[in-house]
């Protein structure tokens, strides 16, 4: 295994005095959204949707940040391996112990190297990947996730609608139609007022 693995028993490491990493910026953005009262109802519906799609599955979560979504995944999934590229952040998050015992592990991993992650996973999840990364980079990470999971795995992606730019529902659907591979099955896109959720089976 080429990545570093952390569990809740790993002691926290104080953050370095350096500019925020991409993982920390993603984590801050999620915290900001979770604190907005006007988003609470839609976020609650989105959490329920994601949990229903991934219930009982072994989930590989890409770009987990500080684990806001990881906590909700762990309540429904068989288990979660949460990945991001900031080792210090993941150590601190794991040490906080806010996750069901034995259900979550964190691993520091370059998001472009998902094929090197070991283990058996029948689902993949990522929140706000498209809005956090340039389009070519996000597409490469998603393609790597598809290759790592293989046929039969379920993939769930969520993000902000504003990341799609302007336009109506038809325009939003056109922008998202190329995210699943051409042979994906059961493709379902839910568009809310602020967020979208895309699920499909490889």
From TrEMBL:
Residue span, Methyltransferase domain: 59-152
**What highest taxon heads this organism's lineage?**
Bacteria
Keywords (alphabetical) are: Methyltransferase, Transferase
Family matches, as InterPro entries: Methyltransf_25 (IPR041698), SAM-dependent_MTases_sf (IPR029063)
A Pfam family of this chain = Methyltransf_25
According to its UniProt entry, the protein's GO biological process terms are:
methylation
Question: What's a Gene Ontology MF term here?
Answer: methyltransferase activity
Output this protein's name.
Methyltransferase domain-containing protein
Organism (species): Caenispirillum bisanense
């Amino acid at each position: 295994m080429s990545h570093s693995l952390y569990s809740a028993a790993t002691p926290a490491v104080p953050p370095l005095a350096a500019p925020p990493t991409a993982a920390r910026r993603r984590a801050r953005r999620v915290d900001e959204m979770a604190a907005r009262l006007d988003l609470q109802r839609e976020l609650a519906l989105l959490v329920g949707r994601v949990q229903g799609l991934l219930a009982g599955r072994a989930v590989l979560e890409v770009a987990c940040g500080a684990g806001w979504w990881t906590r909700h995944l762990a309540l429904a999934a068989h288990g979660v391996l949460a990945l991001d590229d900031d080792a210090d952040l993941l150590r601190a998050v794991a040490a906080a112990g806010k996750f069901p015992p034995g259900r979550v592990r964190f691993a520091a991993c370059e998001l472009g190297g998902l094929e090197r992650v070991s283990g058996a996973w029948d689902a993949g999840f990522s929140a706000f990947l498209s809005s956090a990364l340039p389009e070519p980079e996000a597409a490469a990470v998603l393609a790597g996730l598809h290759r790592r999971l293989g046929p039969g795995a379920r993939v769930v992606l969520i993000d902000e609608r504003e990341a799609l730019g302007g336009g109506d529902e038809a325009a939003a659907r056109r922008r998202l139609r190329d995210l699943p591979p051409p042979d994906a099955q059961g493709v379902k896109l839910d568009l809310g007022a602020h967020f979208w959720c895309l699920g499909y089976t490889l």
